[in-house]
Structure formats: C-alpha cells, structure tokens
Design a protein that fits this description.
Helix content is about 50%, strand content about 15%. It has eleven helices and ten strands. Helix 4 runs antiparallel to helix 5 and helix 9 runs antiparallel to helix 11.
C-alpha cells in the first residue's frame, strides 16, 4: 500500500538507514544478544551517520528535520531483527534526550545533548520507582535542598539503557508536600560516575541486547545546573512527551511484526508437510492473510496519528488507541508465527522464537494496554 505522508527526503533517509542496519546491525544481533550488551561503537557510527538526534537544532549537532523522520526510524529499527536494540535507540532518541532539548538551557544542551547526538553519550530516562510505574505522581525518589545543592535519594527500576547510560534523566520529588502530588515532581540530569549512583542489570525474558536496570541514588549531590526546567515542571513535561513515546513504540511494533510476517511467509513457502508446502494449505494461508491485514490496518492508523502528531495536534486518545491495538497485535502475531513454525518456532536458534519473547514487552512498556484503555475511556466521556 502506498502512503503519501512521506517526502522524497524521508524516503532517502529510509534507504540510508535500511542499508546501515543491514550492514552494521542485523549480522551481529546474536552476538549482542549473547553478550547482553550493545557495543559503544555502533552508537558512535550512528552518530556519525546522522541517525541520532536528527530532529534537534543544528546548533547542537542535529539536522533540524521534522518528526516524521522519527517515524521512519522507528519502523526500520523495528524491522532490523533486534527489538532490544530498537528500543534502546528509541529511548535515547525519542524518550530521554527530548527533555534536554525541550527544557534545557543552551549550556545544558551543549554539555549533554550534543554528545548524545554524536553518539559519544548514551541517554536514559528514569521515571519508574519500584512502587510507582504508570502512577507517576506516586514516585518516592526525592531530593532534599541543602544550600545550592540537591541531595538525591531513591531507587528506579526497569530503566532501559540504565546500566550503561552516560546521562540519566531522573524524575524526583522536590516538594513532598505539594498538592496534588504531581506538582512536586522535577527532572534532573545525573551523569554516570556520580558519587552515590549505582545500578544493577536486570535479567529479562527477551530483548537481551538492551540493558535494563535498577538504579540506586544514595546521597547523590546535584546542583542547580542539573535541574531541567523549573522545579515542579517535571510531571507536565513527562505527560507531554508520552504522546511521542507511545507513537514510536507502536511504530516499532508494526516494524517488528512486519519482519516476523516476512520470515513466516518465507518459511511457509519452503516448509513441506503431507506433500505440499504450508503456504498451499488453506488454514495456514488464511492465518497469514489475517496477520498481514492486521499489520496494514495498524500501519495506516499509525501513519495517520504520526501525520497529525507532527503538526502538533493533541491526539492522546488516538495514540492511546494505537498503542493498545499494536500492543495486543504483536503478541497475537508472535503467537501465530510461532505456531506456524511448529517445533522450530520453539527453538531459540530461530528468529521467530527470539522475537516472540522480545515483543511481549510492547504491551507493557510506555503504559500497559489496561492503562491505555483507561485513558481512552476518560477521553470518550466514560
């Protein structure tokens, strides 16, 4: 199907990125998965190629392009065969450096944003406390003001890039007595190596190339230069960026399911049983047709949301619908693809088995399907 939202410049970017991923990423996925780590060299190469921070101001190393380039990036990253890598880059590009760009002073952008654009630094966003995920207002990680310093204490968990990040954007309470509580949340930049900062890598069932961590803050000393924006501005900045975050995760989900579908079609055309290929069996053909149709429906919806979001429209309802739909779709398609592969689909050496566990995360991260439905319910007046 042909879509008209992209220009020739967008498509040129897509082809450059597709070639880069085919040469520099896909051949090394198993190595990265086994090592549980994305090599720093690939971040440097992506920075050199202009694949990091391209939407930001050229003054800080970006290209100043529109947000539809993010959409192309997300879809192609989803199709590279390594969702862990795709999510790590999205967190860096679309979910964490965004706060430095939106709230930072020129000095803060030169200090932290520019190295993230070149790939010299990797960025993470730390919002979730062990006892507060989607309920951001209930976080307990906090700071105490002592003179001109902020003393940060607390714990974050499930933080993508959290173990290897050079720069971490941390949501913390600066006013524990604020009413309502969300008005007391602020954002800080914490640099790797800061005294009192430590982390522990978490072992996941999938997305092994990407590091996910618990982060601990034990009397971490920060100054006013570490504060992004004003005190109490953090919650509103987080809510504003969720539209982009959920859009990008949804489009990565569409990309990875397209990748799974392509692999499944190839397998079905080659695998023979009872004297004919699986693709010649009606029950399999129809299952694959359903998969392809669902992906295309969600792609059309995603592109519509992307075009409206790029214009600055507030479409929280529609993007919440998209995130809920895609989150459930990826799990359903992963299940069906595994079933079609039969015993091979349960073998870790087959891509479909590895991706089946990877995509399970997409209905959880960025807000669960249930949270999306609650948002939608409010938006339609329930």
């Amino acid at each position: 199907m042909t879509y008209s939202i992209f220009t020739s410049e967008h498509e040129q970017f897509r082809e450059q990125l597709k070639k880069f991923l085919a040469e520099k990423v896909t051949p090394f996925i198993l190595e990265w998965e086994q090592n549980r780590e994305i090599p720093r060299s690939i971040w440097h190469e992506m920075g050199e190629m202009g694949f990091l921070g391209f939407c930001y101001d050229p003054e800080f190393g970006g290209l100043g392009v529109d947000d539809l380039f993010r959409v192309i990036m997300a879809e192609e990253m989803g199709m590279c065969g390594c969702l862990g890598f795709a999510v790590s880059v999205a967190v860096h590009n679309d979910m964490s450096t965004t706060y430095i760009n939106d709230l930072g002073t020129e000095e803060q952008k030169q200090r932290w944003l520019s190295p993230c654009i070149t790939g010299k630094s990797v960025c993470a966003i730390a919002i979730t406390d062990p006892g507060a995920g989607s309920d951001v207002a209930s976080i307990t990680t906090s700071t105490e003001k002592k003179g001109s310093e902020y003393i940060l204490n607390g714990q974050k968990t499930f933080i993508t890039n959290g173990h290897y990040a050079d720069v971490i954007i941390v949501a913390a309470k600066t006013d524990k007595s604020a009413e309502p509580p969300h008005r007391g949340i602020s954002l800080f930049v914490v640099e790797r190596g800061a005294p009192g900062l430590s982390s522990r890598k978490l072992e996941k069932i999938g997305c092994h190339a990407s590091d996910t961590a618990e982060i601990f803050f034990d009397d971490v000393k920060l100054t006013e230069q570490n504060l992004l924006g004003e005190e109490g501005q953090g919650f509103y900045a987080l809510m504003n960026n969720l539209q982009l975050e959920r859009l990008i995760l949804s489009i990565e989900g569409i990309g990875v399911t397209q990748y799974i579908l392509d692999k499944t079609i190839t397998y079905a055309k080659e695998r023979k049983a009872f004297g004919k290929t699986l693709s010649e069996m009606q029950v399999i053909r129809h299952k694959i047709v359903d998969m392809a149709t669902t992906i295309e429906q969600n792609r059309a919806f995603a592109y519509s949301c992307a075009a409206r979001s790029a214009k600055g429209e507030n479409i929280v309802k529609e993007i919440s619908m998209l995130k809920a739909c895609v989150g459930e779709m990826v799990n359903r398609i992963g299940y069906d693809a595994t079933e079609i592969h039969g015993g091979y689909g349960y073998m870790a050496e087959y891509e479909v088995a590895r991706l089946y566990t990877d995509i399970r995360s997409l209905s959880i991260i960025g807000g669960t399907t249930e949270i999306m439905k609650e948002i939608i319910a409010k938006k339609i007046g329930l």
